Amino acid sequence: MSDTDIPATVELLTFRLADQEYSLDIMSVREIRGWTRTTPLPHAPRFMKGVINLRGTVLPVMDLAERLGLAPREQNERNVIIVVKHDETMTGLLVDAVSDIIALTSEDLQPPPDMSASPLPGVVSALTLIGDRMIRVLDLSATVQIKQTVAA
């Protein structure tokens, strides 16, 4: 058996949003921190909760549930901010809770059904089943890319 016969393994960080499970490639995660109150910015999209001070850097924080069109809910001390890096941009993703880290091969991932009427097409790049858990794998690029207009 050669190296080309071995399926590539990807490690995913799983987390909960509104009683659903999602995941991100662990390589894009920089840190996980507890909920911190944000400073709102005027004219920001509704799902952008504001900014926080991350060791001297201004970090925008996105409510991932609102971004994905899930029902808005109150933040509390159990919420978590997953700090991710995409291209050269760092963003905080507000989620309900972090679950665990899973290692999967490309064979474990299934393409999502075509939901072209979705307001955010392409946000879920794959689905996987672990026991009775359906886990959605987010495409970080499609999730965090928004018009980069920041109110001053």
How would you portray this structure in words?
- It contains two helices and ten strands; from the N terminus they run βββββαβββββα.
- It has helices spanning 64-67, 140-144; strands at residues 9-17, 20-25, 29-34, 48-54, 57-63, 80-86, 89-95, 97-105, 124-130, 133-138.
- Strands 8-1-2-10-9 form a five-stranded mixed sheet.
- The protein has 152 residues and is mostly beta strands.
- The chain is globular.
- A hairpin with a 2-residue loop joins β6 (80-86) and β7.
- Residues 148-152 have low confidence and may be disordered.
- The longest helix is centred in the C-terminal third of the chain and has 5 residues, at 140-144.
- It has one domain: CheA-289, Domain 4 (OB fold (Dihydrolipoamide Acetyltransferase, E2P)), CATH 2.40.50.180.
Named CATH architecture: Beta Barrel
- In the predicted model, the low-confidence regions spanning at least 5 consecutive residues are 148-152
Helix content: under 10%
> What radius of gyration results from the CA coordinates?
16 Å
How many domains in all?
A: 1
State the CATH class. Answer: Mainly Beta
CATH third-level topology:
OB fold (Dihydrolipoamide Acetyltransferase, E2P)
Strand order of the largest sheet: 8-1-2-10-9
Number of strands: 10
* Gross morphology: globular
Count the DSSP helices: 2
Average pLDDT, to the nearest integer? 86
* Structural class computed from helices and strand pairing: mainly beta
Q: Tell me the series of helices and strands, N- to C-terminal.
A: EEEEEHEEEEEH
CATH superfamily: CheA-289, Domain 4
Biggest sheet descriptor: 5 strands, mixed
Distance between the termini: 58 Å
Which strand-content bin applies to the residues? Answer: over 45%
